[in-house]
Every structure is written in C-alpha cells, then in structure tokens.
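Troubleshooting log. The previous structure file for this entry was overwritten by mistake, so regenerating from the original sequence record. Sequence copied from the archived sheet and checked twice against the printout by T.R.
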Amino acid sequence: QSRIPAKGGPMPEYLVTWMIDIVADGPVEAAAQALAIQRDSSSEATVFKVTHIETQKTVQVDLDTEEVKFL
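Regenerated output below.
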C-alpha cells in the first residue's frame, strides 16, 4: 500500500530490520526483552538495516550519528 506524500507520487516502501542477540528461556521472552531494549530511551540500540523494497538496495542507518552506510 503506497502513501501519497504532499509533493505527489507514491512514497517508497522500506523493510527496516533491527537485530540483537538475546539469551532467553524461549522466543516470547526473547521478543519481550528485545522490545524492552528498543523502548528504553537510554538504549544504544539505534542501528538499523533499511532495504528499499523496489530496488532491494540496503543501507545501515545509525540514528545516534545519522550516519548512513551503504552495504
């Protein structure tokens, strides 16, 4: 589903991925721990892989430094 921005034309779609290694008793606990880390305002978990759906080009984005690294 494309959204129409104010400037016209559809906005591109992206797949945003955040990965972390977690030790837990099971998948639900692991997901809950990951969510808690993401929601922690002092968390340093601010690096994401972002893939443009149409072109399949992927970059790594660090939201702390606003650095974009081409992969």
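The longest strand covers residues 47-52. Archived copy saved in two places this time.
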